[in-house]
Write a structure and sequence with these properties.
By secondary structure, this protein is of the alpha+beta class. The chain folds into two domains: 101 residues, P-loop containing nucleotide triphosphate hydrolases (Rossmann fold, 3-Layer(aba) Sandwich), CATH 3.40.50; 75 residues, Elongation Factor Tu (Ef-tu), domain 3 (Beta Barrel), CATH 2.40.30. Helices cover 23% and strands 27% of the residues. It has five helices and eight strands, in the order βαααββαβββββα. A three-stranded mixed beta sheet has the order 1-3-2, with helices on one face.
Length: 207
């Protein structure tokens, strides 16, 4: 009797229009999770709507509004099998109007990178971004703030302004998502800091 395969959940998150659904759909196709005939059908339908490049995204974007607007609104799940794993891949929305749906997707993932708050620097107004308080002692539900975060393990991030796909994060505690936000700056001078990604280097040159 063969060894039982491990079941893993993978969630794909990132900024709106960063190519999450297209990348995920392409991955599913390359891993044999969807046949060529179905991809050709999506390609034809996408071309008829003037969105030929969206053929892979339509593997997961099922809602009519998603196809018409070219964005993911709700989480989408797709299951497929490799030689070693049973995989459930979760495509999460990146648009700010659908952040709640993204949180639902991240709560089902199997992997994470542990981070800790090093310092609460400023409490800010959620709408205007103006500073309300220096060095707050605590934050309550609904508050917005600028904080220093230190990763417990190596991670690949960039500031949101430099490269949005790597500039978002979610914070979890006791298996619950307690905060979401964007990365304002990355301290690359810190002793534990890694290298700047090639994508971020290209983004900087393009500015």
């Amino acid at each position: 009797m063969g060894k039982e395969k491990t079941h893993i959940n993978i969630v794909v998150i990132g900024h709106v229009d960063s190519g999450k659904s297209t990348t995920t759909g392409h991955l599913i196709y390359k891993c044999g999770g969807i046949d060529k005939r179905t991809i050709e059908k999506f390609e034809k339908e996408a071309a008829e709507m003037g969105k030929g490049s969206f053929k892979y995204a339509w593997v997961l974007d099922k809602l009519k509004a998603e196809c018409e607007r070219g964005i993911t609104i709700d989480i989408s799940l797709w299951k497929f099998e490799t030689s070693k794993y049973y995989v459930t891949i979760i495509d999460a929305p990146g648009h700010r109007d659908f952040i709640k749906n993204m949180i639902t997707g991240t709560s089902q993932a199997d992997s994470h990178i542990a981070c800790k708050f090093a310092e609460l620097k400023e409490k800010i107004d959620l709408r205007s971004g103006k500073k309300l308080e220096d060095g707050p002692k605590f934050l309550k539900s609904g508050d917005a703030a600028i904080v220093d975060m230190v990763p417990g393990k190596p991670m690949c991030v960039e500031s949101f302004s430099d490269y949005p796909p790597l500039g978002r994060f979610a914070v979890r505690d006791m298996r619950q998502t307690v905060a979401v936000g964007v990365i304002k700056a990355v301290d690359k001078k810190a002793a534990e800091a890694g290298k700047v990604t090639k994508s971020a280097q290209k983004a900087q040159k393009a500015k």
